[in-house]
Amino acid sequence: MSALERLAATVESRRNADPESSWTAKLLSRGPEKCAEKFGEEAVEAIIEAVRGDRERLTSEAADVLFHLLVMLAARGVTLAEVLAELERREGVSGIKEKASRPG
What we know:
By secondary structure, the chain is mostly helical. 74% of the residues lie in helices and 0% in strands.
């Protein structure tokens, strides 16, 4: 099991934890919209560090992005396994071709 898979399992295990004792539980208790908002904030922080060129800070912010992505997915009932399956489905397909195949 990878670190990302262990983190996803931890996020899921905190779903019913006490929001006063778990940041994950607190986020999930505030609903999917708040989880999405927090993910967006973290993504912006990662973008800022990418532009600045600070590798250490970018690495730290990227870890925050991955964590908050997992929380956002969990808030909507989407599992890491589903996301990984979608990535596997796309593997070996040109990004241009894959995007053109999407409806709308």
